[in-house]
Design goal:
Helix content: over 70%
Radius of gyration: 16 Å
Shape: globular
Distance between the termini: 15 Å
Structural class: mainly alpha
Number of helices: 6
Order of helices and strands: HHHHHH
Length: 134
Amino acid sequence: MRGIFGIDPGWGLTVVRLALGAITGAAGYEKFAGGLGGVATALERYGIPLASVVAALIAVQEFVGGVLLVLGLGTRVFGALFACEFVVTAFWVKFRLMSWNDGRIDVMLFTTAILLLLAGPGRAAIDNRWGASR
């Protein structure tokens, strides 16, 4: 299937996957580098239960998931996991406690994760070699 200018739309999905992987991977790295204690304290303020455990889980998910998304490995799984994370950050934390302006990027990351969950990794992904993209 060819899209505009004769380009396979799968390359667009690849760009989306790479962007989400880079953004979440960097965010996970920053959580580790800055210390999980600070992340846990913020999560407690937002009313997230088991904040210390959740902080560690989110940091691992973001860093490992981000790296794997860049590689195109486990795209649909991490699409689902990131969709769960960003629906909480957008609607439970940002919109509820802050403002629309604070949550709009989280909504974009949520929709990006949903796109990858539903449409797969695009081109140039390890998932394609292993048949996991369908």
